[in-house]
Amino acid sequence: MPKFRKKPVVVEAVLYIGGGNVAGEVPEWLWQAMLAKNAGATNGADPFIIHTLEGDHVASPGDWIIQGVKGELYPCKPDIFAATYEAVDA
To answer: What are the φ/ψ torsions at residue 23 (nearest 5 degrees)?
Structure first.
């Protein structure tokens, strides 16, 4: 059976800590999604919902919110994030 390797791509991501907050500064791409009502927590309470073309996705506290290569947003569980991504120098 053929095997495939994921192409190395650089993404931006922030750690969702709950209550509508992320660790550190909110990046511009997430602010824009929240202003457009494509992502956010109602009244600062969980869950944090990300609206996508595939449907709504929920970011739970401890999940990473990723901006993909085409500007799409999606949540990622911390164990999958750690197995898939590594930090790069800015």
So the answer is: -75, 130
Count Cα neighbours of 87 within 13 Å in the Cβ-side half-sphere.
3
Planar angle of CA 57, 14, 23, nearest 5 degrees: 115
Q: What is the pLDDT of residues 42-63, one digit of tens each?
A: 888 899 999 998 999 999 999 9
C-alpha triplet 90, 11, 57: angle, nearest 5°:
145
Tokens of 21: 């907050």
User: CA–CA separation, 6 vs 13, rounded Å?
Assistant: 18
- Cα separation, 83 vs 2, in Å, equals 22
**pTM to 2 decimals?**
0.91
